[in-house]
Design goal:
By secondary structure, the protein is an alpha+beta fold. Helices cover 43% and strands 29% of the residues.
Amino acid sequence: MEKMYVLLRKDLDPVYRMVQGTHAVAEFILRHPDCAAEWNNGYLIFTETNNQSSLSDWCYRLTVANIDHEQFYEPDLGHELTAVAFLATEEIGKKLRLHRPIA
């Protein structure tokens, strides 16, 4: 079963991170309706990475792994990359060495 993973930047305020992550999930659902239907609002896992540069690195890793993902760029921050959402199995999540989920 695939889970929705949301990568957030640790260098943003915690409340802001959640807002950005929600935008990334919404983008994913809008652009990948078939995948979203399969996910069916199941598991949602928020994880963190250090900053915009490391988030960009994750986008590259997801692209190389051929995993559909959506990036969210915040207009209020000069269109900086703030969050990424993607669907993956737990096995793939482990292979990608995601940070520990946010408690």
